[in-house]
């Protein structure tokens, strides 16, 4: 019987894999940047799933809050034009081939006894994981605000061009 | 949940990033593919730490995050330069930049 945890993890992993593929399949650079941010955010969720709330928040701050915003503002916002996307005929078979080659040695690995290590937040009182949903809520709000700001700038530019 | 799932997920994400580098010729897409590979590396590191390691992982993760951040900043700098110079974003034709 598959546990609920495993089902949840499979759902999260499926979203992450779809987002990672869609980075290369979108024709608009802005959409690719949003897909990359989704990969970062889902990775943070996997960290939280692995009982590492501190690392999940770091991942949110650095990758989603920092690097994604750099890419939005510095790259995707000025270059909204379409461009030639990756070759799908190469991408999908090659990724499956690389996955097969890299995961082949796992067939002969015997996993040892497992532990349950967690990075402890020093100096933060209480249980850190109880604050985690708040961080995700703030991430979603800031994400929506940054996307909305870029769309508003685009609309304002189009309005100015009409005048 | 067994650790194999985390390893397989990180290997698959890494494979998508590696294949993305080969499959795309756009300069920005190649950098985004490298970011995906770095994310896969952090995923594998955290999974290994959670299940088996006995020590510190924060320094390793911060070094990976620092590499990703530097990569993003370098991407912006090169991208703005290429836009200004009206250069091509096709990496197979970037030798024109030396002129």
Question: How is this structure best described in words?
Answer:
The complex is a heterodimer of chains A (163) and B (99). By secondary structure, chain A is mostly helical. Chain A contains five helices and no strands. Chain A has helices spanning 4-25, 29-49, 53-76, 88-103, 132-162. Chain A is flat and about 70 Å long. Chain B is mainly α. In chain B, helix 1 (3-23) runs antiparallel to helix 2 (27-51) and helix 2 packs antiparallel against helix 3. The mean pLDDT of chain B is 84. At the A-B interface, helix 1, helix 2, helix 3 and helix 4 of A face helix 1, helix 2 and helix 3 of B.
Quick summary:
By secondary structure, chain A is mainly α.
Quickly give the CATH architecture of chain A. Up-down Bundle
Q: Give the uncertain stretches of chain A in residue-range form.
A: none
What's the helical proportion of residues of chain B?
over 70%
Average of pLDDT of chain A? 80
Number of domains of chain A: 1
Radius of gyration of chain B: 17 Å
> What is the CATH first-level class name of chain A?
Mainly Alpha
CATH class of chain B: Mainly Alpha
Q: What amount of the residues of chain A lies in strands?
A: under 5%
The SS-based structural class of chain A is mainly alpha
Number of helices of chain B: 3
**Strand segment count of chain A:** 0
Supply the key terms.
heterodimer; A: 163 residues; mainly alpha; Four Helix Bundle (Hemerythrin (Met), subunit A); 70% helix; B: 99 residues; Helix Hairpins; 3 helices; elongated
Secondary-structure blueprint:
The complex is a heterodimer of chains A (163) and B (99).
Chain A: H1 4-25, H2 29-49, H3 53-76, H4 88-103, H5 132-162
Chain B: H1 3-23, H2 27-51, H3 58-85
């Amino acid at each position: 019987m598959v546990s609920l945890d495993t089902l949840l993890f499979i759902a999260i992993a499926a979203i992450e894999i779809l987002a990672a593929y869609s980075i290369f399949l979108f024709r608009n650079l802005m959409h690719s940047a949003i897909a990359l941010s989704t990969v970062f955010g889902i990775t943070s969720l996997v960290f939280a799933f692995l009982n590492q709330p501190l690392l999940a928040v770091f991942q949110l701050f650095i990758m989603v809050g920092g690097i994604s915003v750099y890419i939005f503002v510095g790259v995707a916002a000025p270059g909204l034009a379409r461009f030639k996307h990756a070759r799908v005929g190469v991408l999908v078979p090659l990724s499956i081939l690389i996955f097969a080659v890299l995961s082949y040695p796992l067939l002969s690995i015997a996993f040892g006894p497992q532990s349950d290590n967690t990075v402890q937040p020093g100096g933060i009182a209480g249980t850190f994981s109880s604050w985690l949903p708040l961080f995700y809520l703030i991430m979603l709000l800031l994400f929506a605000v940054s996307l909305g700001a870029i769309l508003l700038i685009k609309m304002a530019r189009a309005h100015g061009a009409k005048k | 949940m067994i650790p194999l799932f985390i390893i397989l997920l990180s290997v698959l994400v890494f494979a998508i990033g590696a294949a993305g580098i080969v499959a795309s010729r756009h300069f920005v897409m190649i950098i985004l593919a490298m970011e995906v590979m770095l994310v896969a590396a952090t995923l594998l590191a955290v999974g290994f730490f959670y299940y088996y390691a006995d020590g510190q992982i924060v320094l390793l993760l911060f070094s990976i995050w620092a590499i990703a951040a530097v990569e993003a900043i370098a991407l912006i700098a090169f991208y703005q330069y290429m836009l200004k110079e009206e250069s091509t974003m096709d990496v197979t034709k970037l030798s024109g930049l030396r002129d």
